[in-house]
């Protein structure tokens, strides 16, 4: 069973068996344009909610992926680092950034669910 | 997550890409097309044996001899520097030059860049042996003319701005900005102040926050009002929110990057001064006000010039620039070395920061961009005060003329109001046509114009910033206006495909910037 | 006014369209205060008047070409082929802007790509950028880059780094809250041990100039190894780029970042600027590198072309998170370098280097015959240091009055260092002829013999 949450800075968190998979949303990638470079911290890095956790660069923009919740980084997506286009082509699938062991389940409550996020995107357009 | 856009040339996501099969450029057997010559890289036509410089009396073998004074460090491997004979080199570079657009060949309304005419007298003066062929470290007694030239340029720049002193040495605008902010930091340090907040409007040049951050300041951004300028009340709010005791400075561009004069600039200066902070003015747009308004009268503490913009020294494909900084009385003691000191008849250049001065240090080796000082002074003397005022007047007139003639077709994001030397439109009136700001820019290329600045400033959606400068005649501006109007009606008439294909009359068509950034190739490597 | 196309008539017609009675009214409408204009400045002048005036000023300076000239220390007088200046004055190069629209800027972009390749090969590094302002500011940028890469805050500088370069590094370090440690000054000696002893676990980078400010050459391999062992980077500085036609490149001796002053190739002395900052490094640091870069790509028809790339590192996108606040490069100076280097080619560069070294050897041999002159260097390329029997500055001043520009007294660069009072640094390039050396030797002898 998995459930997906969204942040207002356009990250998604998919939770499966206590492990969170984090990436950028389809809307975020469409706004950034062609992504050309991704930098992800090393496995073992402790992240606090709101930290700058990864760097994403497109041809026309540079931005950060902020940690949507606190936890320890357990895996980084090396395939994405080698081929940043994955974040454009399949952002919520093969284009994931990293996995986190969740420190505080309470962080999830502050995130949006899918329908709330869709409304949020609509509003900001 | 989402950040901002730069001066992109890449089509936005979703815009149709140019179709390679639609290229109307027919092939030729030679690779050339009439006057348009194809030119390979130097590395594909040159060879390491070839040379275009003679050294009579030295054989290749002799040149390869190792001397014991080289400490066993003789470079015996091949370096990888192919050469060409002089005729081949001349042709190579002339052909390359023909692939460039230039002010000398056409209208170049690139907003915030001030692409004005480059008088050739300036080039001639900079090449006088007495300026070109003198060394920065030969005795000062042998360069009195050079020091006098620097003093005269300083005098003009200080008088034109109503300031107290000048630091000439910064190498370009951003370097001047660094210099001005360092002077402010030095003044704060001298007062044992811990102020660390720098206020920067959202519409500022990217260099402003980059400079503040480099010096360890925290950037607090100030929103613009709906008329595109900064309200003194917004500055006051930011001061109160952060605490007056934390405010180090404000960095404000005036006229701002939307081409508008900051109407409340004096009130803003007063508010910042009252809080105990300094006022840094980005002088990139000084061309709009030179000879007419003195920033010193508006409360500015430091302002850099871009000599390559305002005084036309020239742009040279991206440099070299020159960014002198004028300072108010309270910042003057902190100016970096070198600086000029006059004592009666004696004019000297002080080259070292020591106990006799409070100079904050040194920004560059030697004394700055002498070659640019000569060009700028030649430009300034040629214009004189009357000519400089006439030039800024014409620059503002030209921009408002374009504004008036296009405002029924394009939207001014901050309402219908008089602008200074450049006019800002956004792409809202193109919505539904399938044509973006970028497409319009690329079509202008096919029409023989250099596009305006696009997607800057970031505060306007699909920004088009048009700066005609004083160098354009009415006829030249009218042709631009006519072309813009025709293109905009084509866009509305559903001819979006022509826009997406543009440019087609150029040596190359739209370039793949994504590919260039994903797999950077920054040098030529022989294919295996 | 010869530079303004408008006539009073065309201004009036345009004002009418705009709906303003005068230009003053237009300024007023736009919110600009009126009545605060500067005064007390003269009005416009004809081309002839400006020419006459500036020419007069220029004639007050002693021109290198008219003197026996031996001044170096970071700026060198070389012969630049006539075609270089002709080509860089082509309108399309001189009066274009930064190549933001690549379809109509391939000329600039292609020469930048050629330039980057020449610089990377010359410095022995994997990649190079499209230039910085000059060598000294490049040195400051390199130190900041090393701090970003190593996440450390301390730079170790060779004592024999050009003092202006050291000063630039110290100024930015002080302002941005980084630390700098300097090794002792050793005129004429490659005191590698002093540098090695200062490298520790907090060191982000070691900055070593070769040939150093006194002209001494360095084998950088040992310093690179020691730096890498502690996790620090080696930044090599070259101020006389012609030397790399004769001696090993810093990149090939283990330097991680190489910065150089490129003025010697293609660019005149210009009293100190504009010059040309060369910047090269290992490819893995590409995204930490400051300044503009040009990259290869293809166009919509699949043809090879060039664009400015990796611009997300730069200030106009990253703003306060940019790798540097730099906006401009040294475009036209890159072109001069690129053309001059193309004319030289490898063969010409090696010959040029050979002539320079030979002249300097000849000069050192002649000088060491003079009583009261001692050559300090055991190695040098085209510049070396001598110890005089009396303070160097007054000697240089006296010789200058006789049209002999004898070099740089060390006291000009280190006014505080008493021990360097008698020290003089001299350079000899291909522009020096035998008569210049005769004049210098005769003049020097006279000065040293005088009471």
Tally of contiguous helical segments of chain C? 15
Q: Main β-sheet of chain B, in a few words? A: 7 strands, mixed
Beta-strand percent range of chain C: 5-15%
CATH fourth-tier homologous superfamily of the largest domain in chain C: Type I PLP-dependent aspartate aminotransferase-like (Major domain)
What is the count of β-strands of chain C?
15
Mean pLDDT of chain B: 92
- Class inferred from helices and paired strands of chain C: alpha/beta
List the helices and strands and how they pair.
The complex is a heterotrimer of chains A (125), B (528) and C (451).
Chain A: E1 2-6, E2 11-16, E3 19-24, H1 26-32, E4 35-39, E5 46-47, E6 52-58, E7 62-66, E8 71-76, H2 78-82, H3 86-89, E9 98-102, H4 106-109, H5 114-124
Antiparallel strand pairs in A: 1-2, 2-3, 3-9, 4-6, 5-8, 6-7, 8-9
Chain B: H1 42-45, H2 60-63, H3 86-97, H4 120-126, H5 129-132, H6 144-161, E1 165-167, H7 173-190, E2 197-201, H8 207-214, E3 218-222, H9 232-242, E4 247-253, H10 265-275, E5 278-282, E6 302-304, H11 307-310, E7 325-327, E8 339-343, E9 346-350, H12 370-406, E10 423-425, H13 437-446, E11 453-454, E12 464-466, H14 474-492, H15 496-501, H16 513-518
Chain C: H1 8-18, H2 23-29, H3 47-59, E1 68-69, H4 82-88, H5 91-94, H6 106-123, E2 127-128, H7 135-150, E3 154-157, H8 163-175, E4 179-182, H9 192-196, E5 203-209, H10 221-229, E6 233-238, E7 257-261, E8 277-281, E9 293-298, E10 304-309, H11 315-318, H12 331-368, E11 373-375, E12 383-388, H13 392-400, E13 404-405, E14 408-409, H14 410-413, E15 423-427, H15 434-449
Parallel strand pairs in C: 1-13, 3-4, 3-5, 5-6, 6-7
Antiparallel strand pairs in C: 2-8, 7-8, 9-10, 11-12, 12-15, 14-15
Helix pairs in contact in C: 4-12, 6-12, 7-8
Task: Characterise the protein shown here.
The complex is a heterotrimer of chains A (125), B (528) and C (451). With 125 residues, chain A is α+β, with helices and mostly antiparallel strands. Chain A contains five helices and nine strands. In chain A, the strands form two sheets. In chain A, strands 1-2-3-9-8-5 form a six-stranded antiparallel β-sheet. In chain B, strand 4 (247-253), helix 10 and strand 5 form a beta-alpha-beta unit. Chain C has 451 residues and is α/β, with parallel strands linked by helices. Helices cover 39% and strands 14% of the residues of chain C. In chain C, helix 6 (106-123) runs parallel beside helix 12 and helix 7 (135-150) packs across helix 8. The mean pLDDT of chain C is 95. At the B-C interface, helix 2, helix 3, helix 4, helix 5 and helix 6 of B face helix 1, helix 2, helix 3, helix 4 and helix 5 of C.
